[in-house]
Amino acid sequence: MESVFSGQKISLYLGDSIVLDNLNFEILAGEKVGLIGSSGAGKSSFLSLLNGQWQSTDGNLNIWGDSFAKLQGKRRRRVQRKIGTIYQQLNLVESLAVVHNVNAGNLGRWSFLKAAVSLFFPLEQQRVHWALEQVGIPEKMFAKTSELSGGQKQRVALARVLIQDPEIILADEPISSLDPQLSRDMMDLLVDLCDRHGKTLVVSLHSLDFAKSHCDRLIGLKQGKILFDLPADAVTDAQLDHLYSDSPLY
Ligand SMILES: Nc1ncnc2c1ncn2[C@@H]1O[C@H](COP(=O)(O)OP(=O)(O)O)[C@@H](O)[C@H]1O
Ligand SMILES: [Mg+2]
């Protein structure tokens, strides 16, 4: 399988603190990787590194074989368009209709003018409809986003990423605000979409159960270090206890 990300000796400092510490990893095309670990372990930071929002202080991150840090200008934008991120806080504009929030997934490839026109005359409605169908809420296309439930908003955020049609989906605790049934629906949806369209998924999760049931591989982060990187069914209870305990790393 093709290598999507490969990191060698990656460290990230923010201010004076070390947030990611000497990470080595490889993520292959089509893999579904779960990032787990306590709050503050570095999961969100790791995702920000993978989408190029942050650059490592030390070490090298390759994306599709190219050094991410060395990609600039047009080539960098082209690569970043292939990465879709679902942020924990969703970043939806509540006052706008769903169609506009989904269309925001096009901003990477639309001109400013096209984007501006679309605010008044929504463009590519068929695509938006398709994306909303994929996430199961096509009837909400013209609903005001603020009037949706939490679960529906999560779906809008996912539809926006689908419109972007990225090859990689990064999701930061996409189910943290959902009840168990909606969490299951959302995880099923995410995994099913990645499977059907051959996308690579890296998802940080609070819930161990969903991490085990929906990911093929788990990376356990503790205090910015990789404690284990194993097939999901190979992770032991002892490793999980250690991951979430306050005890030192080694
Ligand atoms: N912008 C920032 N500046 C300084 N420190 C940060 C910043 N963002 C996160 N951190 C620190 O980095 C560590 C990891 O945070 P984060 O990646 O958000 O962990 P997680 O997502 O696992 O909860 C934490 O100690 C946090 O305080
Ligand atoms: Mg986080």
What does this protein look like?
By secondary structure, this protein is of the alpha/beta class. The protein has 9 helices and 10 strands. The strands form 2 sheets. Strands 6-7-8-3-9-10 form a 6-stranded mixed sheet, sandwiched between helices. The model has no long low-confidence stretch (mean pLDDT 91). The structure holds adenosine-5'-diphosphate (ADP) and magnesium ion (MG). Magnesium ion binds next to helix 1.
Number of helices: 9
Quaternary state of this entry equals single chain
Shape: globular
Low-confidence stretches: none
User: What profile does the largest beta sheet have?
Assistant: 6 strands, mixed
Counting helices, strands and paired strands, the structural category is alpha/beta
Name the beta content range: 25-35%
Record the strand order, biggest sheet: 6-7-8-3-9-10
User: Kindly, what is the distance between the CA atoms of the first and last residues, rounded to a whole number of angstroms?
Assistant: 33 Å
Mean pLDDT: 91
Number of beta-strand segments: 10
Question: Ligands bound here?
Answer: adenosine-5'-diphosphate, magnesium ion
Return the string of H and E elements. Answer: EEEHEEHEHHHHEHEHEEH
Helix content: 25-40%
Radius of gyration: 18 Å
Question: Which features does this protein show?
Answer:
single chain; binds adenosine-5'-diphosphate; 4-stranded antiparallel β-sheet; alpha/beta; globular; 6-stranded mixed β-sheet; 9 helices
